[in-house]
Specification:
The protein is of the alpha/beta class and 265 residues long. It has a single domain (6-264), classed as TIM Barrel (Alpha-Beta Barrel). 40% of the residues lie in helices and 15% in strands. It has helices spanning 15-22, 47-58, 77-96, 115-128, 151-161, 176-182, 189-197, 229-239, 251-264; strands at residues 6-9, 26-29, 61-65, 101-105, 135-138, 170-175, 202-205, 207-208, 219-220, 243-245. Strands 1-2-3-4-5-6-7-10 form an 8-stranded parallel β-barrel, surrounded by 5 helices. Helix 5 (151-161) runs parallel beside helix 7 (189-197). It is globular. The N and C termini lie close together (6 Å).
């Protein structure tokens, strides 16, 4: 556990400098507006090629988070079709900078929809996307119609995409705040998710400001939320995957979170 990489979500303007400021070897960031359909943007001064070269030279692993609005599960064509396009654009851009993975939320269907339609829409999206790097589906905190809040829905998504060409490039990102707020008990979360997906590729380590099964996605710094510290650390330890902290604050606050976690690991 002493060698487990622990990093943070940072601004994309200079991820190399952000990583060095935190003393870490991995960072996650958005490429453009997380709430917009206009496509990825590379803000790094050296462009995509420069970011890739500089990250490799510095020994820093990059992860990209897809925009929140991507929802390839929905039956609404006006959302699903642009979402597929946006997913491919971000896959391409993330691959261009040498990212280790692209994290994307599970999305949701409408209240009146059969969840099975959402599962199959995920399958179609995977088959329609040229997966040039791993796409990591992240569990989400809220919504009764979400595709990746509850374990049975995650299982439905996984069963559907397992039949898709390219499914070997689909992984899982476990968010601790989302699991707690979404009603997944942390004590056995890793084992239950692995029994469904067979893998956990990344952990979003976040404390939660809100109660269990509240459906509220509000992150807190480690030890300042409602997660049981032992269970929280147990998820990180058992998953054994690289860790990204999506906690409030800048470099100093993230370094405090890193230290809190390492001390308990």
């Amino acid at each position: 556990m002493s060698s487990l990489p622990i990093g943070a979500h940072v601004d994309q303007t200079d991820p190399i400098a952000e990583a060095k400021a935190r003393g870490t070897t991995l960072v996650q960031f958005f490429l453009g507006d997380p709430q917009g359909y206009q496509g990825p943007e590379i803000a790094y001064a050296g462009g995509a090629a420069g970011l890739r070269a500089d990250a490799e030279a510095a020994g820093i692993d990059l992860y990209v988070h897809a925009p929140y609005i991507v929802n390839v599960a929905t039956t609404n064509n006006r959302i699903r079709i642009p979402s597929r396009k946006l997913l491919q654009q971000h896959v391409d851009a993330a691959a261009e900078i040498g990212a280790k993975g692209l994290i994307v939320h599970g999305g949701h269907v409408n209240k009146s929809d059969d969840p099975a339609v959402g599962f199959d829409n995920w399958r179609k999206a995977i088959e329609a996307t040229d997966l040039k790097l791993p796409v990591l589906i992240e569990n989400t905190a809220g919504g009764d119609n979400a595709m990746a809040r509850h374990l049975d829905r995650i299982a439905g998504v996984w069963e559907a995409i397992s039949t898709a060409e390219g499914s070997e490039n689909v992984g899982f990102c476990l968010d601790t705040c989302h699991a707690w707020a979404g009603g997944i008990a942390l004590a056995d979360a890793v084992g239950r998710i692995r029994s469904i997906t067979g893998r956990i590729d990344l952990v979003h380590a976040n404390d939660s400001r809100d109660a269990f099964d509240s459906g509220a996605d509000r992150h807190a710094n480690f030890g300042n939320g409602q997660l049981d510290a032992e269970e929280f650390v147990g998820v990180v330890r058992e998953a054994g995957a690289p860790v990204i902290c999506e906690t409030p604050g800048g470099a100093a606050e993230h370094q405090d979170d890193f230290a809190w976690l390492r001390e308990r690991l």
